[in-house]
Amino acid sequence: MENGEIPENANEHCPGPNSETAGKSDACQGCPNQEVCATAPKGPDPDLVAIVERMATVKHKILILSGKGGVGKSTFSAQLSFALAAKEFQVGLLDIDICGPSIPKMLGLEGQDIHQSNLGWSPVYVESNLGVMSIGFMLPNPDEAVIWRGPRKNGLIKQFLKDVYWGELDFLVVDAPPGTSDEHISIVQFLQATGIDGAIIVTTPQQVSLIDVRKEVNFCKKVGVPVLGVVENMSGLCQPLMDFRFLRMMETGEHTDVTEKVIEYMREKAPEMVDLIAASEVFDSSGGGAAKMCREMGVPFLGKVPLDPHLCKAAEEGKSCFVDQKCGVSAPALKHIIEKLMTNYWPEEMAVEQ
């Protein structure tokens, strides 16, 4: 337990050997290190000093959170990072989703390795001004499961913060796992002394997702992290009408593809329909969605991003949705949200950019 490191055989939710409650909290019951932790002299964690020094060159730190998985949090983290880098900012993207690291794929960096220099671990770079760090770069096999208990996860997050050499950064975007577990407590605890700008929470419109988002908002309030806003992702399926397939269903349940006939008919009989966007509610938003929840909880609502198959494809291919016109419905929505964030929270950076 040198330097206050949490031992690998510690109980889940270990408060840490240097904590005032070390060896005394409910989480310590039955731990093989309980007596040692309870009697050991307490003091400041020297690693926190190293983290403060490392983070001193990072201007803004943003947590991306979600109440539950599958809402597009990592997609938003990746596209936010692409957008900030496109504005010529120096950007770092830190993936602390230890058990489900999807950021390497979403940035087109699968198969890359981490290199070490005399300054520390070097991020893997997409562009010269967009660096990425993830446990995904450390796995010998991308299909390998990471079966770690809380203390080991916390140790790696601490390593990411104190040992990665980001250099001068304008923004560090932290992609966290879903929920309010050990990783969230650790990242807040480790970063609080360095200043966290706040958290962006990603959700989908239906109540089953919003129930968990309310918990995430309350988590932020309890630990003192400002909520920069909530993004309602997958807010209805939107795509050009001409991108749809049209099927004729049979009584047997089978179907016949009549797409070519329908498109030919529209072009001939109703050409004004060719450029239309078709929209459909995928999730039930009759409860008012994220906007209503934000009003009730007193947090900012940043906007809606439609479910766009082209955005899904961009994420699968590790590309920015802003580089061409393919993401015609999602890219403008994301851009509007990012501009709102810049105006509300980082106007000085906008002035430099302009």
UniProtKB/TrEMBL annotation:
Entry keyword set: 4Fe-4S, ATP-binding, Cytoplasm, Iron, Iron-sulfur, Metal-binding, Nucleotide-binding
Subcellular location: Cytoplasm
Cofactor(s) required for function per UniProt: [4Fe-4S] cluster
UniProt GO cellular component terms: cytoplasm
Pfam families: ParA (PF10609)
Region (Disordered) residue spans: 1-26
Annotated [4Fe-4S] cluster binding sites: 14, 28, 31, 37
A single GO BP: iron-sulfur cluster assembly
Binding site for ATP: 67-74
Cofactor binding annotation: Binds 3 [4Fe-4S] clusters per homodimer. Contains two stable clusters in the N-termini and one labile, bridging cluster between subunits of the homodimer.
CDD domains hit by this protein: Mrp_NBP35
PROSITE patterns in UniProt: MRP
Domain of life (superkingdom): Eukaryota
Function: Component of the cytosolic iron-sulfur (Fe-S) protein assembly (CIA) machinery. Required for maturation of extramitochondrial Fe-S proteins. Functions as Fe-S scaffold, mediating the de novo assembly of an Fe-S cluster and its transfer to target apoproteins. Essential for embryo development.
Additional record remark: Although plant and algal NBP35 proteins lack the characteristic CXXC motif in the C-terminus, thought to be required for Fe-S cluster binding, they can bind a [4Fe-4S] cluster in the C-terminus. Also, in this linage, no CFD1 partner protein homolog as found in other eukaryotes can be found.
Subunit structure: Homodimer and homotetramer. Predominantly homodimeric.
Record family assignment: Belongs to the Mrp/NBP35 ATP-binding proteins family. NUBP1/NBP35 subfamily.
Protein name: Cytosolic Fe-S cluster assembly factor NBP35
Native organism taxonomy: Eukaryota, Viridiplantae, Streptophyta, Embryophyta, Tracheophyta
